[in-house]
Amino acid sequence: MIENTKLTALVASRICHDMVEPMSAIIQGLEMIKAQEGAKTDPDALSLLDHGVGKAWAKLEFFRFALAGAVAEGDSTLEEGREVAHKLYSALKPELKWNAPAVAMPRPAVRVIVNLLLIANECLPRGGTVEVTAAKTASGGEVVVTASGPRAKLREATGAALRGEGDELSGHTIQPTLTGLLARQGGVELAARESEEKVELIARSPAFQLQ
């Protein structure tokens, strides 16, 4: 059992880590504007501000949805996660392709899928494509998040964290650890398949009902 204080600290560490880059862009853009002393605003400064604000907002929206307990209860559909997913990927390298039909599922399961999307991004160090698909199974349904691109790879520590087997909890493994914990609590089975330049993250549950 993870101590609440350690859990909170690691979640905060992860959020801070992800927010450093966009906040740095915002600060740099503001410094460039201040240095102009009334001259016409440099387009590069505006570009930095636009990039930083957009990425910061996208990541804050993602973390609010994926990690906040206030959105954890009730019935929902996979579509609830689509908007926050597209907003997140507008600030990331890979292209997001949402090719899943409507799937009814508990809201905690939607959060599991959205968290898998962030993990899929981390599998693509050189960018690529992340695709969301869904299909019926004999016992319910499955949602597959496929990361395709050069050197696509699921980190060993990330895979272990998803399975609940990680020995060491850190700021880098807290998000997949919480994803795996949320899945197990909600009766969602997680699996991963790897092939050349492809990683498939699979979520299965009897509660997934394709509409």
Note down, in words, how this protein is organized.
This protein is an alpha+beta fold. The chain is 48% helix and 22% strand. It contains 6 helices and 8 strands, in the order ααβαββαββααβββ. It has helices spanning 4-35, 43-67, 82-89, 107-122, 156-163, 174-185; strands at 75-77, 95-98, 103-106, 129-137, 140-148, 189-195, 198-205, 209-210. The strands form 2 sheets. A 5-stranded mixed β-sheet has the order 2-4-5-7-6, covered by helices on one side. Helix 2 (43-67) runs antiparallel to helix 3 and helix 2 packs across helix 4. It is elongated, with a radius of gyration of 18 Å. The mean pLDDT is 86.
List the helices and strands and how they pair.
Blueprint: H1 4-35, H2 43-67, E1 75-77, H3 82-89, E2 95-98, E3 103-106, H4 107-122, E4 129-137, E5 140-148, H5 156-163, H6 174-185, E6 189-195, E7 198-205, E8 209-210
Parallel strand pairs: 2-4
Antiparallel strand pairs: 1-3, 3-8, 4-5, 5-7, 6-7
Helix pairs in contact: 1-2, 2-3, 2-4, 4-6, 5-6
In short:
Helix content is 48%, strand content 22%.
Strand count = 8
Strand numbers in spatial order across the main sheet: 2-4-5-7-6
Overall pLDDT confidence: 86
What is the count of helical runs? Answer: 6
List SSEs in N-to-C order.
Answer: HHEHEEHEEHHEEE
Query: Major β-sheet, in short?
Result: 5 strands, mixed
Helix content: 40-55%
Question: What shape does the CA trace take?
Answer: elongated
Q: Kindly, what is the distance between the CA atoms of the first and last residues, rounded to a whole number of angstroms?
A: 37 Å
Whole-number radius of gyration?
18 Å
Tell me the fraction of residues in β-strands, as a range. 15-25%
Q: Given the helix and strand composition, which structural class is it?
A: alpha+beta
| Uncertain regions spanning at least 5 consecutive residues | none
